[in-house]
Each structure stands twice: as C-alpha cells, then as structure tokens.
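Q: Okay, next protein. This is Metal ABC transporter ATP-binding protein from Thermocoleostomius sinensis A174. I've checked the sequence twice, so it should be correct. Can you predict the 3D structure?
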Amino acid sequence: MDYSTTAATRTLMASHLSVNYRSVQALRNVSFTVQPGNVVGIFGPNGAGKSTLIRAMLGLIPSTTGTTIYQGQPLTQQLDRIAYVPQRSQIDWSFPATVWDVVLMGRVRKAGYLHRFSATSRRKAADALERVGLTDYRDRPIGQLSGGQQQRVFLARSLAQEADLLFFDEPFVGVDQKTEDILFHIFHELAHQGKTVMVVNHDLGESIQQFDQLLLLNRELIASGNRQQVLTVDNMTRAYGGHVSFFMGEAA
C-alpha cells in the first residue's frame, strides 16, 4: 500500500528527548523519525532506557528536554490515537476483570466514560478477541490466563481502540511461540494499514527479522534504521560492550 501522500503528516518525530531520575540521566538527547506503516523494534541492554523512551514519548514520565510530535502536534495531546501496553509485571493481574471486560476497555474513549457501550463497540471488541484467538475465553478472569494469553488479551484491547500508534513494552517476555507468532502477524497487519507499531524487545535472535526499523539505545541513540544499518559490530559494541551475539539474517 502506498502511503506517500500522507507519510509527511503522519510521521512520528522524537526530538532531543532526555530524562533524568534524580541525579541519573536515564536518556540523553534522543532523536529519531518513524514513518507510518512500520513495525519498529527498540533494542538495547538492561538499563538502556528502552521503557523510559516510550513512557517519555507518551508523557507518562516527565522529560528534562525534548518533544515528540505526530501530525504536527505534541503526541501527549493525541492520547486518544494511542494504544499502550506496559510490561506484564506492571499490571495487577488480581484485579477482578474478565477477558471481555479488559477488551471492552479499549472502547471507553470512543463510547465516553459515562456512557453504555454501543452495539458497534461490542462488535469491534468481539472481532478483536476473535483475531487473537481467545473468543472461547471471553468470560475467564484475566488472572487465570497464561502469560501468553494475557498478552493476547491486551493486544485485543489495543485492536478495539482502533489506535493509529501502538506501543508495546516487552510483549514477548514469558509468552509461547504461538502467541509470538500471533503478535507479529497482527503487528504487520496493522503496519500494512498504515499504522505505526513500536515494540520494546530484548531478543537479538531470529525474531529481529520481523522489524522494519530498529532503534538501538544505550541511554543515547546508538543507531536507527534497517538491520543492515543498525546491526554492525561497531554499533553493537557501543550499545552492549564486549562481545554480543546477534542475528543478522538476510539483507534488509
């Protein structure tokens, strides 16, 4: 699909983002551009600022400097266009909600906080649940699911939101291969629709081939681009230090 006529206005741009935690600089002067229709992987060692980057872009934590712009406006003023799934460790799985409850939460902004869900909202939530293969789990308490199933439920919630920008923080931790395959398949479907999908990941294995663009971080941006541009020995040494094994695959 050709997005050339709208790519300029739908570009996501982070400019000079810096974040300090007290006396520690967690992120330093990070700038990059993401065009619509891409699945973007954010990589780097533990403590590199990957999650911090996403949270700063979304305004969930304060930035010391910098801005994030989408369609010419601050991203923090367009939260209705964003779906965000944090790390599973940050979610209270004891909360008394069913799978259906969680997926319907993706329709709250569309319906309004004090309004009943419309037939359209319920249909879109049901369609999203079907896409991730969990229709039969609709009435199951979310805390009773496996890690992979839980991740698929939150993907379904994101689909129900009909967001243009989707952010996932370590979605592949503790999931099975079936879930990983489903996630990547849907990520690419969303990108094909012209949406932008940004994924914090730590796996330097074969799954790295699934990303159209890579951001390599270690508190500052080491490199941004396709695999050939980013996965060089020099860049990986700067990011990880010493020797690190990574999958190069075919030329991007």
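A: Here is a summary of the prediction. The longest strand covers residues 24-34. Residues 177-192 form the longest helix (16 residues).
Q: Noted. On to the next one.
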